[in-house]
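TL;DR need structure tokens for one chain.
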Amino acid sequence: MQKTIEYPDGYVLPIFQWDPLRTSNKLVLSEDRLQVTASDGSGFKSAIGDLQFVPGNRYYFEIVIDKGSLIKIGVCTVNGVFKDQAFSDTEDGWAIYNGELRHNSNSTGKKYGKAYKTGDVIGVYLDMIDGNLSFSINHEHQGSAFEDIKLKTLPMYAAIAPIYKDDGVSLNMAIKED
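>> reply
TL;DR here they are.
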């Protein structure tokens, strides 16, 4: 469903879908590939977007939590093979995870933002000019989450990773008001 949403000045609103070739077989994609739902409850599993975010740009996209709260949301490089693990468990992924951050760890990260729940909208701000990643929860910006040279030098992709069966998210594809 297309809606008109506001997004930050200077950011590109990318239009993409979840890539079936880079999505765990424990996740189900909707026909339009905008929605992901976990069909299995054993461990994290990832879905990766089909659009490459290129250095030198700023991107903003939104993820709606359809069900659940223990879902990792963020970006990753093309380097990792993440299908049946969370993309942010490796050095190739960066995520918000329900009030914490995850990068190169499956269990530890600094406190960040607040817990989210079903119905919440998570905004992802990927600044590939300054090498910064930040998030918003229900359009309330949570501040800088990560600063990393890789975030401005390597191509990135949108990524999510739910853990529990039936948990899922939708891409909030929209157009900008003129």
